[in-house]
Design a protein that fits this description.
The structure is a homodimer. Chain A is of the alpha+beta class. Chain A has ten helices and 14 strands. A seven-stranded mixed beta sheet of chain A has the order 3-4-5-9-8-7-6, with helices on both faces. In chain A, strand 7 and strand 8 form a beta hairpin. The longest helix of chain A has 22 residues. Chains A and B meet through helix 6 and strand 8 of A and helix 6 and strand 8 of B.
Chain lengths: 332, 332
């Protein structure tokens, strides 16, 4: 009932619709209408009630409610119905919540979004600051019929899809991808991606791709250390708020388009898209992994997602994993 | 107390030791000694009790009890103490049990062994017949500091370690590895390996390597269809029983040696060992995966564990995953 009441109010907006009319139209009691209005109000919808005119919807909260996202989706695999979007006001971590759903056989394309993560995680268990309503904290479940060796391409896919979405919404911002999947604006991180997987040696059970975007953080929302290396769309966008709902819809559409392409045509177009938006290739880098810290020029991205770095002696190494630092090249 | 009583009985075997002496030596009550003897008897140890002479150990059951395995281990990482060996009479699946332990932070080198699996699984969820006391149903937990892309090498490592162990115990049997990790004797499967993993895109959380060896199956222990493609050590060994305890100890030692080598020297020696015992390279094969069924000659094993197959037209393909069928090559 609640969803239907919301749809009626939305259609009539900014005019009034009477409780009686809604009750009759939906064949429910007046009490049921009244309860739904109460529930919507406690969800943050500002609904004005007038004894004579009825109800009207004044403000839609910028929460990532399924009802506010699905309307703008034209996806084939991801969040294709409202039941596949699990919205929470607060979770430990959207990845953890989604992995639990995945273990209980949630279908491919299921997503978890939360207003706040209290135990948000980045790569290798690092903390990811996720205050309420300041960002998009979203996880996506995929079950591609592929071996786990193909996982890196999905991380590139996610990074490229976020870059594309930001370009659509904020075309004036210069967003660049640092290998493999950090998104930077003016050398500061605005988005991180954490892909987790469960698999057999040759067969993926599932991938959970967690995407964290710093959307409407003010300076004070960062810790002082974090502010040196992180930024938000708000801060980079001339201190204007960005609609999390709109960005989420655009992002889900882009993810869906790229995933569909990947399944039908293989990784080529993903790799191409990633290369177009990357700020790593051609740069001097240091790649740190468990074995070494290797300095050289990032010369290319391999088809399997690995970064090809050429050392001083001309030797080329392929990195599947590692932490990249961009080295300033004074004088080229 | 029970473990200590068992050690005393084992030391004295085949002579007697009195309950009084054991109680005094271990500084426990006579009742406590008596209870331990009862417990050992119900575990299958045949212990004779004589009012005048005391107790003596007559028969050690061929169960995979930690106490019967650790004595012969000289491992550095795997099952380095009794607490790291979890023995069960019956489990759903040793991999599932061990994944639960891993999720609760069990240390690297933890193993699960069971006398029987009632829901034993092979690759891609296929059923794996695991009747009580007929096989070795064992899972091993590793936490290598590597990206998930390196997983296939661990599967090769496990296959090569089983092959090596069988050669040590039954040198006259011709055991061959079919890529990636099936062990065959006379073209019939005697061992399967199921590696499962939890990871981030670039960082393994853990690997669980499940090893199932058909040890003392009689013909009647197989279904008629299974008998066509599967065999057991008993059947291939002139119908003589093989000690599961001895094979388990030898296997854990070999796994430990190879794993230590892999961590220090990289995959080269593992690949070499695998190649020495494989029956895939040089053969005509069909590799089936989700995309295709490709026929050609298996020409080499790549350093990352992928199989290189050369098709009719001379094109070489690398397979990370797939089902290999060996094609008979009449006349070469």
């Amino acid at each position: 009932v609640r969803h239907k009441i919301l749809e009626l109010l939305r259609e009539k907006k900014p005019s009034y619709i009477s409780g009686e009319e809604m009750a009759a139209f939906l064949a429910v009691s007046r009490t049921s209408v009244w309860k739904s209005i109460q529930a919507l109000q406690s969800d943050g919808y500002v609904i004005e009630g007038s004894p004579r005119l009825g109800y009207r919807l004044l403000i839609i909260p910028d929460h990532l409610y399924p009802a506010e996202i699905t309307g703008n989706l034209h996806t084939k695999r991801i969040a294709v119905n409202r039941e596949m979007i699990h919205h929470y006001h607060q979770v430990e971590s959207t990845n953890t919540t989604l992995k639990n759903l995945a273990d209980k056989d949630a279908p491919e394309g299921t997503i978890v979004v939360a207003e706040e993560q209290i135990g948000g995680r980045g790569r290798q268990g690092r903390f990811w600051l996720s205050p309420p309503e300041k960002g998009i904290w979203l996880s996506l479940l995929l079950r591609p019929p592929l071996p786990p060796q193909d996982t890196p391409v999905f991380t590139l896919l996610a990074a490229a899809a976020v870059a594309k979405s930001l370009k659509i919404i904020l075309p004036e911002l210069a967003v660049g991808i640092k290998w493999p999947n950090d998104l930077l604006i003016n050398r500061r991180k605005v988005c991180g991606i954490l892909t987790e997987l469960k698999a057999e040696a040759e067969f993926l059970h599932y991938l959970v791709i967690g995407i964290g975007i710093n959307v409407n953080f003010r300076e004070k929302d960062f810790t002082p250390e974090l502010r040196k290396i992180a930024t938000s769309l708000y801060l980079e966008n001339g201190r204007k708020n960005v609609s999390r709902q709109r960005l989420t819809s655009v992002l889900l559409n882009e993810l869906d388009k790229s995933y569909t392409e990947l399944l039908s045509d293989g990784p080529r177009s993903i790799i191409g898209q990633w290369k177009k938006d990357n700020i790593t290739l051609g740069k001097r880098v240091v790649v740190k992994n468990v074995r070494e810290a290797f300095e050289g020029k990032a010369v290319d991205l391999n088809e399997d997602g690995s970064l090809i770095v050429e050392g001083k002696n001309g030797i080329r190494k392929h990195f599947h994993a590692g932490e990249v630092t961009l080295v300033p090249m004074n004088g080229g």
